[in-house]
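S1.2 Input.
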Amino acid sequence: MSERDVFIEAFGRIPDAVSQAVEGLDAGQLAYRPVLADGSGSPGNSIAWLIWHLTRVQDNHVADAAGRGELWLTDGWAEKFGLDLPREDTGYGHRSDDVGRVRVDSAGLLAEYHRAVHGRSLQFIGGLSETDLDRIVDTSWDPPVTLRVRLVSVVEDSLQHAGQAAYLRGLLV
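S1.3 Output.
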């Protein structure tokens, strides 16, 4: 199995986790934010935020690596969601009030956006050669980030957040 095939397999696991986390949930369930156990009384992340964020990060990172625009910005997803956030926002560094601005009326909308991003990610990954994975995609880190490392990071982030969303779903249903 080539590295490209491993990435296709890894990315291929994310949509099922996303679908299982959101399927059949209403807007209130998607927005549910449990109180953090840190004693602050602050609410944590919602399912809507977790799924939106993991999809935005995948969209942003893969689009950047591919030299394309993000689907969020180019295909009208920002307008479909209509969030009270800057259009380019991916959720990175969000504080509690920012998380609260990610309100989604439909689990279907979250899943649909994720499917679109996933399809585009697989298209990009499917066209990669082994040497493409060594390409530097981010020089702001030391050491600089290769495409290989960036894709691993996206998979890790996506599966962690999908797991968190699944846990929250378990608290609700």
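S1.4 Remarks. The beta strands are 136-138, 145-146.
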